[in-house]
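$ fold --in a.seq
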Amino acid sequence: MVGRSSLPEGSLFLGFDSSTQSLKATVLNNELIIVASEIVNFDSELPHYKTEGGVYRDPADDGHIFSPTIMWVEAFELLLEKLKPKINFSKVVAVSGSGQQHGSVYWKKGSHTVLSSLDPSKSLLSQLKDAFSTMDSPIWMDSSTTKQCREIEDAVGGALKLSKLTGSRAYQRFTGPQIRKIYQTAPRIYEDTERISLVSSFMASILVGNYASIDETDGAGMNLMDINQRTWSKTVLEATAPGLEEKLGKLAPAYAVAGQIAPYFVERLQFDKNCLVIQWSGDNPNSLAGLTLNTPGDLAISLGTSDTVFGITAEAKPSLEGHVFPNPVEPDGYMVMLCYKNGSLTREDVRNRCAEKSWDIFNSYLDRTPPLNGGKLGFYYKDHEILPPLPVGFHRYIVENFNDVTSDNLVEREVEEFDPPSEVRAIVEGQLLSMRGHAERFGMPNPPKRIIATGGASSNEHILYSIAQIFGCPVFTVQRPDSASLGAALRAAHGWLCNEEGSFVPISCMYKGNLEKTSLGAKLAVAAGEDVEDRALLEKYTVLIRKRMEIERRLVEKIGRA
């Protein structure tokens, strides 16, 4: 087996993460230790785009949320400038990256010529500003394609049929329905597009000066790829838009080489001309790599702009809920995932309303309120939610006879509001109860052997404590909450190694037996409670989850968006 020594002495591996609100970079050395990192925040560092949380919300079209494509280009240039004093670019032997999943970019006809002949004396911004058939990139927060989702599902024989074929039923944020909407509502834009990229393959395309392939893992987040064959599904392509396959190009495995770095970066920033660009992939798949998640009993919870729960499995068993993607670092395996749109921004909304915009006060309220919150259950949807498919709104209930934990006929009553401390606990517990309820329904391990928490809120030990109580297992954290850019840097090293060996090698061979000496090791943050009180609490949470899922089902039947 190939060892870690196979990474050349003194070499650097650069990983990017193009997320909703920022662009990050993480640099690993050949010992897989972080030697540099940098970030560009879109709202504060590129204020001329006037984004909020990195996005625009269309006031005339409910649920239409997008970002300016060119902002990502300018952010990329700024990030490279910020990295320049920190690292020697000539030592970078491979680059890879992570992109927010589902977001799409539309290159207009003739743009390949521009991309392949970039002038190193000019900025990327000045050369690419006219390269797109639309300046707006639909992103994962968009929920304006319900009509297109139904049309695609109907054309292939129903939601379950589409899920079995592509790994997910039609979701509004998925790229296929977004493409269909553009084809239907702006046919001239569709006609003028020569290549459609995901955010991940878009950024890779800039680095190689050529249209980079969409990788198979991120490609599974489009409702367009056959999850078993890992090729575009002709059935779904035809149901989405005419001539689509030509605009998408070919798929590639996540560990493949997208190309050598473009001469533009060699001349402008002194990258080595042999530096490899490894296929970029989605943010959640990169987090899976960065968390070294390779045991089926483990779960990861990412607490970011969106909250996600994911794990790995040997076989694909798609259903009407959740998603199945190819595992980005294990060619024969899969990753399973649940995604919630209402993550950190919704927690911040409660903090701002109830805790004087202070995380310290928010955390003190969590400390002051008992687990289970006296039977108070909250459903908080600042944005249209994905799981469950509910519209914007807030729903609060008190479960009346909750002290009788064995009761299967708990009675709840709806209330207008909770006091501020209860509201704080209700948002945290509500999100976690929903995660556990849906994870169990999706067939994820129950209880997990352990949970690895990542994302911005994973640095909040009060929230980690609630995760341990509700899931009944230990919670680990990694050194850095930005696991996506770390995973991208690790995947850059892995792709370099696979290329060097001439075939796929397991990613674990780079750190096996040595994980704690790298920047990848996970540390125990909260142990699982083992005493009688802890087990009794877990049992009560299990009862409360059943009640919550029952209320949720009724809400979906009454006001659900799908």
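$ fold --in b.seq
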Amino acid sequence: MKLHDIPGGAKAFLLVAKFCYGVKLELTALNVVELRCAAEYLRMNEDFGNGNLIMQCENFLNEVFGNWTDSIKALETCEGILSYAEELHIVSRCINSLAMKACSDPSLFSWPVSGPEPMRSSEGTEFWNGIHVSSRSRKVQDDWWFEDVSFLRLPLYKRLILEVGSRGMKPDIIAGSLIHYARRHLPLLGRQASNDDRTFSALVLNVSASASSEVDQRRLLEEIVELLPHQKGVTPTKFLIRLLRTSTILHASFSCRENLEKRIGSQLEQAALEDLLIPNMGYSVETLYDIDCIQRILDHFMLVDRNGNDCILTRVEDGQLMGSNSVAPLTMVANLIDGYLAEVAPDVNLKLPKFQSLAAAIPDFARPLDDGIYRAIDIYLKAHHWLTDSEREQICRLMNCQKLSLEASTHAAQNERLPLRVVVQVLFFEQLRLRTSVASWLFLSDNIENSHNISGNMAALGGTNNAAPYDNACTTENHAFGIDNNMKERVSELEKECLSMKEELDKLVKTKGGWNMILKKLGLRIKFKNSEQKPSKLLINSKPDREMSSTSLPTNEQKRTS
């Protein structure tokens, strides 16, 4: 007699034979599922005898489902005889039992559900039924079940995650379990990308060496991406970027990578700069890093941010004013992209259109200061010294000279890589800023003088009782003197920069028409008051794309006056 299809094979049949001959049989969580399926296959029900094997296995399974560890063991044994276990609903009962326990209060499994409250001694030690119990046992974290379920195979684990999600488990806990499971079964996920092309290529070759392993890991990664909660901010951005990097290595499907890019783009402000440095794994590797991937992520972030701002404006128009700090994430992303551009700028294979497209995707109002984009432009110009003058002016249009800090303006005024036209603009806006500061200082000085006179009159009238306003006026006056010193230092620095620039221009100009030649290169033109006399004022007008209309540069006499 041959029984090839018996569940559990010869091992299960041997246990069934022992049961039939009255040999004492020990049921455990590891053999009860196989015995239950084998008994069903052999029709060992109550029709052929009371207390038959089916009834005894069912009674023991009910005890197994009440224990977390035994339920895990029983579910693992279902994988070998999955079709039989599915027909008897053993798999679904195990998953429901595990999901119910995972969603319940974990303290219920270390303390009795009902019964007397634990007694506390005078020293603070807790007792239950006279047994010493550590107070630490009550502090169970939400991730207590992650490690146990991570040993399950993907089909059963997927069903368990879907079940706990349907029971209302928090999305962040589900995401934590998926992260734990992915780190255990995806070896590439924990490895950082290397900037060394040889090291990274060797890593890819090792993964591609085993085709079956690559296929299994690709399928596992795609399933995990589908199971991740869709709520924004639930899954860490760092983990999503690592998934994206791994999906590139494993050549995952286009929909999987697009899903990850959209998830990252929706919470790009939470990313770190080192995470965005994804190596380029395309067939035509032009650049060291995958610039196109970051471009798509940034475009999706801008789309989500634009839609969010439109919703806020709609609510405001309806009369529902919503307090929102929508500019803050955009500013964080602007700083992040500026830092990313500075990292990829030294790549000689990075084309100018890609650099411009990535930098121009950030609106101008998102950058409080343009120091970051100026640094990236300076690094790019240094690495791409063969750019023409028109290309240099084109890339410099990405920054706003008015939004450079004092340190960046000082560096830009002495930067030989920048076009002369940009240097002139930097000096002009620095001079304009200085004039504004001087005007505010003069206004402050007038207020100090008025307050000084008023405080003097009040002191003469009120005597010692009015000494406080006089002290405040003196303090304000001392603060003004400090501003005066700072202003003098800035004026001195600006005069030195203008003088050095003038000396450099004088070296270039050797003929009478030299000024016209230099200004013609800068895209400027000269207007003289009287053609018969020497020009006493030089009026510089820029082109329409650079708004510097009819603004005069100061002469030496005006410098001394100022």
